């Protein structure tokens, strides 16, 4: 039952207590005397009321809640009684009575603080902040001391003697003791080295005229250069003996007067009393008077006098220090002066202002150039202290400071000096005005970032560098500089959580910043959603900045997946096809198309990516039709480039490829694309040619016909460079396009024959081979295209004009030379194809030799000795393979051109395509139209069968196996016992033949079966003949 009543009772007491506190806080405002003190009292009550409300409402009430509230209520009731004596309408209050009231109010606050300290920590659970706040308030209330204009202390009048009266009293006393000391300011106190007001400035010396003074101040480290200076001593005001505590021999901070009338330092006299205990008699250390009471009172007058003297002499010491820095006769003197100024400025803002007023800042900053590490360290500490909590001081220091020197100190090996430099920079960075100035100092941000990311080297420096960077982040310019130096977090944070203006600025910076590959993916993951959201903004500047940043991110291929997952495809498709915004600062269609092209070129599957809410995907007819429509309608070149790039990406999907082909076959579209080849915008022309190359396998003849019907084509596609080291991408892809178009297209071949100088092409090939393909980025591709164009002509040798061309320039020797001199696999493959095509015509061009007799010689029978005929018969060379008069130039004979060895060498190539092309060329020497027996004998003489067997072992492609087996069969049939022996001795061949028999296609199986039969590995069956 008791537990149920306690919450109700506690609430009742708390409500009553809060009402009383509210009434008191209202009433204290009306008290006219000591108004500041009473208002301060009311503030303490108000702060305590918050704790009372917390006790009332908390779910975890402590067991002693009622005791705490009742104790507070007693204190509030007492406060009410005390304050009633100060209300209006009552009799005037004397100073002594007012002082007594204030002391009583202090006791009330202290008692309340003690009550609050009884609240257990369990009351706050995990609310550490609340516990800390209550404990702090409790301690503050227990140590309260109201600054009153009146005091109830005893004998205050005696202590309020003026400075002159004290001096005269002291003079009278000293005259009695000694006749020699007559100076008004004489001091008979022996000082220790710890005296903060004399020895803090060891360069201060007494004037030589004070010969009657008997000061025994130790001056161990005083600078000899300063001792001779009269400028230093003139500022200092002498000290009064009464300033010093008889016990500590130091100037007093808290002077108190005891019963004997002697004043001591408060702490010193308390220690003396405690030393004697409560039972022993205590005597005054100076007068030896027995003390009846141990009560002491603050000597407020003396305390004020000492403080005023300190203030005057601190100003004087600042001037002395300035003089010392100006003289700067030694580094030791400079160090002492700086340290003294540090002491003077400790916790006293007015002294900092005085340092600035006397013009010390330039002198202090100048000392940073000293070689002495201690001087520089002290100067940095002093500058930091002067800059604390004062933006004006920060700006004055920054105006004089050479920041490059601070940057140099940041990298020095002396750790304290490095730390002080960092702390000064940290303090200056707290000024918003200085953020830009600091950030623009060359190297400062890079240095801070370097230190930040090396905590293992120096943890303290790393933390302070991080804090400095945090301060500098307030400047957008600094954020950009940080990003440029690899510290991207501030930029990314502002881009995600900032307002629209900040996001716009950060996105603009991101678009301009060149990012490392390692950081591009990280950036995309962090800010892609935010940037995509900015695209929908109605602010043109925001949209432009977002597009710029997205374009840069999309250019890095690994980011494609991240952007797709963020939903960029549909947004960009809408920008391209449906969204209409007029009078924008940019063309959003161009930007959107560029971003999509970048993403699709990354190689990701995008066929099924949705582009709108209607279910259309990237590979749908909707997208292809829209892009073709935009190309037909004279859109800007920059947009056309990206549209072409997107179409090129779509060609790898059968559905979209079929749609593209059907549209391009239309006359208008095909001519539109052909015309784009000649566009002066080179990037557009290159992109268009690349697209046409992709379409060539499916509609090559159509493109060739359209090309020949276009003015200026095809000759404009072959532009021979003046310098082979400066081949452009357009020249390379143009040559490749012509090489890729159907080789058998006679119309195109004749157009090339009549409009292109073949000798110039041959000369260019020769120049590229001499200078090397590494001389230009596109040299290899251009060379392959030129060789491909020459190969075109070998497919239409039935045309007399093209035959004449091949003979005139000896194409057989050209391709034979290219087989061995080129480092490009494609050039070797094309050369082998060219030789195959030429060799296929050799049997048709090779004719039996005919010896014609001269008619005149037949009609006239001359004597034998007058005959012009040689006694020996004329020997005519006949090609053993083609059975006629052959040459590399006229009949394209491979044997005569010595191309056989080169083709056999190509059979050992690693590239299967090169091997297959070379083998196909050699197969023309085993065709049924030639003399196979002699051809096999000729090939046996160069050990051709060994090369063929190696092909079977090294490659597994059906096409290669089929041709290799066909050649092996020919050798078995026509090569005699030697060939059969060489073939049968190959141990691996039977296993390969069995594998081909089981897994090869029809023709390969049939040929493998025949060889196995020849090798007696299979029974003989009647099979139909098969030829290549």
Automatic annotation (TrEMBL):
Catalytic activity from the UniProt record: S-ubiquitinyl-[E2 ubiquitin-conjugating enzyme]-L-cysteine + [acceptor protein]-L-lysine = [E2 ubiquitin-conjugating enzyme]-L-cysteine + N(6)-ubiquitinyl-[acceptor protein]-L-lysine
Give its E.C. classification number.
Answer: 2.3.2.27
Q: Which residues form a coiled coil?
A: none
Pathway assigned in UniProt: Protein modification; protein ubiquitination
- GO BP term (any one): protein ubiquitination
SUPFAM superfamilies per record: ARM repeat, RING/U-box
Q: Name one GO molecular function term.
A: ubiquitin protein ligase activity
Kindly give the Pfam families that the UniProt entry links to this protein. Arm, U-box
Could you list this entry's UniProt keywords, alphabetically sorted. Repeat, Transferase
Entry keyword Transferase: yes
Top-rank EC class of the record's enzyme: transferase
Q: Which residues form the U-box domain?
A: 238-316
The protein depicted here goes by the name RING-type E3 ubiquitin transferase
